[in-house]
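Training component of the fellowship. As part of building independent skills, the fellow (R.M.) carried out the full modelling exercise for a liganded target. The chosen ligand was heme C. The inputs are recorded below so that the supervisory panel can assess the work.
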Amino acid sequence: MRTLTSTPRRHRPFHKTAVAASLIAAMLAITSATSWADENAVAAPLALRKIMQDLGKNMQAITVGISRGDWELVEKNAALVAEHPQPPLGEKMRILGFVGTNMGKYKSYDGETNAQAQAVGKSANRHDGQAVILAFQKLQTSCYTCHSEFRKPFVAHFYGTKDATQ
Ligand code: HEC
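Fellow's submitted model of the complex:
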């Protein structure tokens, strides 16, 4: 251990070691900052994720509407689910590249969600609560069907396996 009693002669090598150590530390910091940035670039969330989060909120609003008998709220949110936005073209190409030969299936699942959301909206328009509930169950099933098949591989592919749940 170094103490204040160390001779001046021994200070010089100590100083050099300290400089070298802090240089190594700085290099390590830069290296880890770079790999952190790379990781982040790869894991930038897809526009699809935001679209999905909005769908989740619309579904919650529909359940609120059902509980309150607020059919306008149900109808409005069912329309938002049916006509949800598409990801931008560049992202669509990335998704297409990943989904590949399963594209037909992926699109048909999206079509099923669209059809069931329209059924919820029509029932809400008639103020037919029972029909809304039945259609809503089918709508939830349509979300679930796509998730159970595509969500995990999507997340693994676009964000890395560590984020893959479900
Ligand atoms: C055609 C396929 C498909 C359909 C249909 C679908 N989803 Fe998704 N959903 C995905 C994929 C793929 C992801 C993963 C996206 C990501 O993590 O970037 C996802 C992720 C999500 C997430 C998680 C978002 C997050 O923050 O990680 C929610 C919430 C969600 N979907 C809600 C819904 C709801 C509600 C419906 C039905 C109304 C629905 N989805 C229908 C494919 C689909």
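The panel noted the following from the submitted structure. Residues 8-42 form the longest helix (35 residues). Residues 1-42 form one domain.
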